[in-house]
Amino acid sequence: MAWTNADGLRITFGAERAEPHNGGAISTMGAQKLIEATIADLSELADTPEVVGREDGGASYGVFVPKGAVIEKVEIFTSVAADSAGDAGVLDLGFIRTDLAATEIDYDGIAANLPQANMEAGETHVITLGATGAGALIGTALAHNGLLVASYDTAAFTAGAIKIRIFYT
User: Fold this and answer.
1) pLDDT tens-digit profile of 50-59?
2) Among 96, 115, 97, 91, residue whose Cα is nearest residue 107
3) What's the whole-model pTM score?
4) Between the chain's N and C termini, which has fewer beta carbons within 10 Å?
């Protein structure tokens, strides 16, 4: 349960941390958990990792994944086809710690150099252990609480919109 304290700060716990942003936890009523996040415009990504869901200059928290979560699979649904100069854009998805220094857990631990060709409109790309674009954190337990980060590599995206679904236990 969330509340606002006497200082005007919103206090949240667990999955509630991500709900007020462009992503958050979805109840699955089972052992497997699901977090969903949206990147509405891939052209806004930088070549350095930025927190997904932090739309207001950094005041919002972002999309939270708890310590101990074992990422089983990731689905990337593309609503607007990704595009970049020379069709060379690749996507990196990973995590940073929730500490004030935003220490790297693994900047491409979920998706590592996922090619633009895997982000066609209306398609869902599934990432599991050993799949194309799978990062090193797929199948392993997170050692720290994390915030989802995204960036591009090789070439900046000029178009595209995706929904990211992270399944974990």
Assistant:
1) 999 876 555 5
2) 96
3) 0.82
4) N
